[in-house]
Structures are given as structure tokens and as C-alpha cells.
Design goal:
Layout: H1 10-27, H2 52-55, E1 65-66, E2 69-70, H3 78-90, H4 100-114, H5 121-145, E3 149-152, E4 160-163, H6 167-184
Antiparallel strand pairs: 1-2, 3-4
Helix pairs in contact: 3-4, 4-5
Length: 199
Amino acid sequence: MVERCQSLDQDCLAQLLGNLLVRLNRARAPGSYIARLMGTIDLGVAMDIRTFTELTTPDERSLRFTPLGLATGGKLSPENAAEFQQRSIAAADLVPAIPEGTRSSFERLRTLHAYGVLCYDLFTVVADQTWVVLEQALRERFIEFYGGVIPLSARTEPRACFQRLTSRRLARHSARVEATRRVDGSSGSATRGCQCGSP
């Protein structure tokens, strides 16, 4: 094959890579071909490309979970499994006082839980991401509790307060602290005398 390409120009390299991919694909099972889009570089990582039918086929493991527990001798139909998984999480509703950010993250997890019928690994993703949503809820409640102002204090410094920092406000605050370090050599004087609630 290399003999046919005397000079290794772009067209020749593309042809060699194409032939290599064809050979790799022939060695694999028909339902798991290597995908390569035009203009992309194949780094040798094979991804199983599935058809839409394969993507929407229920995972056999999720069909074993029933309202009575794990079924070793039988399984639910895909429709019943989807209904069961949705009903199992439907009772977990949030109170109206929950902020919209936390609410949308929670709803995203409920949706992923329902899709666990199609991909069993999504149950693990939901379990892992639950802690992220819980942390988000605590963060939002903390900021709400202090009225958008976060009080900070240290043993050696007077009390300082920071409002909820946006990226612009954080950059401004960092510039003030850096300017203060250059002037008097200390790092905390930019916040001295700051009154809680001031911008």
C-alpha cells in the first residue's frame, strides 16, 4: 500500500488512514464500528457506534428491578420498568421555596433516573451527581441566609464582608488586593473597615 504512495502528501495519508479504518472495522463486530468524521483525527480510540434502535433498547439489568425488589426469575416489560422507575422518584418533590437553579438540577437528575431503564450506568451517574445538587442547594441557602453578603472574620483581622462575587466583581476585588499589597506590603488591608452590606 505504501508503494502506491510515493510521496506522503495529504491525499495519500487520508487514503492510508481510510484503508486502515476499513481494516479495523472489518475486524470488529458489525454493530460496533469506529466513527470518524471528515476533518477529525482518529487517535486510535474506538467508540462503539450504536444504531438508534440499539440506543433505545432497554438495559436488561434495569428490567430486573420490580416494586417487590430484585427479580431473579423474571423481569418487567420495558413499559412497566419505565413507569416503575419514574414512579419511584416521583414522590420526591421539592418545596416551592427552592431556588430555580437547584430545582432545574434536581429535575435533570430525575430525568436521568428515568433514562436508567435504557442505560443502567445512568443510575450510578444520578447517585454521584446527587451530592453535587445537594452542595448547590446548601450554597444557595447559605447565600440567601446572609442576604447575598458573606461575612468573613479572622482572629487578627476586623470583620470583613463580601457580596456574592460575580466574575467582574471578583476581578475588581483581586485588583484592589494586589494594589494594596504593592503599596503597604500587607494582604488584608483592602478589606479593613469594610462594612457588611457595602458593595
